[in-house]
Amino acid sequence: MKPAPFEYHRPGTLDEALELMAARAGEARPLAGGQSLIPAMNFRLARPAALVDLNRVAELAYVRPADGGLRIGAMARQRVVERSLLVRRAAPLLAEAMPFIAHPQIRNRGTVGGSLAHADPAAELPAVMLALDARLETRSRSGARTIPATAFFTGLFGTALTPDELLVEIALPPLPPGSGTAFVEVARRHGDYALVGAAAVVTLDERGRCRDARIALLSVGGGPVLAAEAMKLCVGESPSDEMFRATAEMAATRDIDPPSDIHASAAYRRRLAAVLTRRALARGVERAGEAA
Ligand SMILES: Cc1cc2nc3c(=O)[nH]c(=O)nc-3n(C[C@H](O)[C@H](O)[C@H](O)COP(=O)(O)OP(=O)(O)OC[C@H]3O[C@@H](n4cnc5c(N)ncnc54)[C@H](O)[C@@H]3O)c2cc1C
After folding, report:
1. What pLDDT band is residue 292 in, cutting at 50, 70 and 90?
2. Whole-prediction pTM value?
């Protein structure tokens, strides 16, 4: 099928893009890599009256170091982030997750901002941003906002963005000393959307006890899920198989409400969530030990 008719705008600067978004608030949609929006338009699941193409807004495409962490422009291509040495050093969790997104052809066009704004509950990047405690910077003609990842995702394909607002930057804080991270997922074939995935950031104190743990899961509900109850179990504990297992069970039974669909039953997703949380935690602890 072909998309319904739409106006096409190609601004060269962020200010021009924001003007267009304000002029057509509620009717215009930004176009990033087009890897989700264009198929949705072709299926007529999306019928925007106008597209504001961000591909010539060069000021939104970057990866920069910032205060020990990173700042990533919304239009940074997924493949650029995947290959960035800076990302590998400052945000190894993000680097580890990138190759699980679709295939290289899609990552060549797909952007970090597009994936976050799309907010697919099965997508890798929203969960990674929760685990890394990212801040999402937005702009509209009326101002700028900083939204913590925990408040950005509001449900199935839902975000805190208003209709005239653009996501412009993702700020990742530095990992605390003594931290290790891990990303794991299970999909039917490499490159498919995950049946379940888990991202973990574990920080150990000087005695090897868990000072902090952030665990985020994907494909287990209406959006990415921070496993808050499970995370509490880790704090102050010495890592052990028993601790990993108890935390994983807590995540799978208390923190998530997975759906049943044609890909997997809710019960299977719960089982996978437990297994993957345990693996992510154990690997995170191992890497934190190596970093110490
Ligand atoms: C075959 C296939 C397999 C895929 N597999 C996976 C997978 O395994 N994991 C995964 O995570 N993704 C997967 N994807 C999706 C892919 O990662 C997309 O690149 C991503 O979801 C959207 O990024 P995009 O840059 O293409 O955004 P677009 O498709 O251009 O836009 C997506 C949405 O975000 C909005 N938007 C874009 N940029 C902004 C912005 N700066 N501010 C506000 N709103 C904005 C658009 O208006 C639109 O609503 C797959 C896609 C395909 C086609």
Report:
1. low
2. 0.97
